[in-house]
Structure formats: C-alpha cells, structure tokens
Amino acid sequence: MTQEIKLRKAEIEDRDLIWEIIQQAIERRRIDGSTQWQNGYPNLDTVESDIAKNFGFVLTVDGEIAVYVALIFNDEPAYSTIEGAWLSDGEFVVVHRVAVHEKFAGQGLVKKLFDHIESFTKENGVQSVKVDTNYDNIAMLKILEKQGYSYCGEVFLAGGMRKAFEKIII
Questions:
Q1: Is 87 helix (H, G, I), strand (E, B) or coil?
Q2: How many angstroms separate the CA atoms of 159 and 39, rounded?
Q3: Considering the chain, what percentage of its residues have pLDDT values greater than 90?
Q4: Rg of the chain's alpha carbons, rounded to an integer?
Q5: Does residue 169 register a pLDDT over 80?
Q6: Cβ 37 vs Cβ 29: under 8 Å
Q7: Element of type H or E holding 101
C-alpha cells in the first residue's frame, strides 16, 4: 500500500503535536550527545510564532503529522554574515527546525521532506534552499550530502557556529 505524503502549512490546532515532536527531537539530540537545541530553543513560543507567521509546515503521512519544519523566504539575518560564501545571492528558502515524530523516525521522511521543500521552492520561483545545522548533527549532515547540498561555510546562529549549506533549485 502506498502512503500519501504531503507538505502543508501548520495550523494552530497542530501546535501541541508539533511541540511534542520538537521535544522528542530535543531529547534525541541530547541522547546523541549533540549540543544542538539544548539551551531552551526551540520552544513553544517558537512554534506559535512560526505558525502565526506562516513559516510552520508539516509533512503528513496518510494525514498524520510526521515531520515539522519552518520554511522562511529570504529572511535569515544570520545568513548575511557567513565565514565562506553562499552559492547565490538571489531569493532563497531557509529550512529551520526539522523535527521527526518518534513514530516515524528512521523511515527516510526527512529525505522526502527535502524533496517536497525543493518542489515547493521551484513552484514559488525561488532560486535556492539554504540550511544550517550543528557540526555534530550527523544525521542531518548525511541527508544534506545525499540531497546534493553544497557546504558554503559557517554562520553564527542560536548561540553557536553552524555549518551552512545551499542548493540551487532553478
């Protein structure tokens, strides 16, 4: 049986489940020994702000929320200063706060999420996708490599240096 996988905007009714998913991801990062997301960010206010600003998106599997992500058009002040160089200086989509529900962990849904993000980016006529992650987030680093993202340098974000990547879409 084929699963129906869709990317849609998060609704305020999704808030509590999204927050639960983020808390699971925070705990997974901690267990993995990562410093990412261990300082009170992201938090419930972050989720509410994402939804209010139309940045919050969910990837659903057969209608059930499996993955949360924030997608932001052309707006990440930290990206204006990079130790290195972006591939482009055109319009871009920023990917932040990727979190997978533990029920769906290990099923390749983050790869599917990035496929949907890239389609979404292309459909909106946006040139590229930019993303950053912690140096010790091995799972995300592997996904970015497999998806063809180029390492561009480092940015200072959320209290620390992050590896920054970009992929030209159109």
A1: coil
A2: 9
A3: 85
A4: 15
A5: yes
A6: yes
A7: none
Helices (H), the chain: 15-31, 44-52, 109-123, 138-146
Distance CA 41, CA 26 (A): 9
Amino acid at 116: H
CA 141 – CA 151 distance, rounded (Å): 10
Torsion of CA 97, 102, 107, 113, to 10 degrees: -20
Strand order of the sheet with strand 64-73? 5-9, 56-61, 64-73, 92-100, 128-133, 160-168, 150-157, 83-84
pLDDT band (50, 70, 90) for residue 1: low
Q: Which amino acid is at 11?
A: E
Note if the bond before 77 is cis, omega within 30 degrees.
no
Tokens of 69: 């992500």
- In this model, does residue 115 exceed pLDDT 80? yes
pLDDT tens sequence across 27-36: 999 998 888 8
Q: Which residues pair with 150 in a beta bridge?
A: 166
Rounded distance between C-alpha atoms, residue 148 and residue 68, angstroms: 21
Q: How many CA atoms lie within 13 A of 60 on its CB side?
A: 14
Among 65, 164, 57, which residue's Cα sits nearest to residue 121? 57
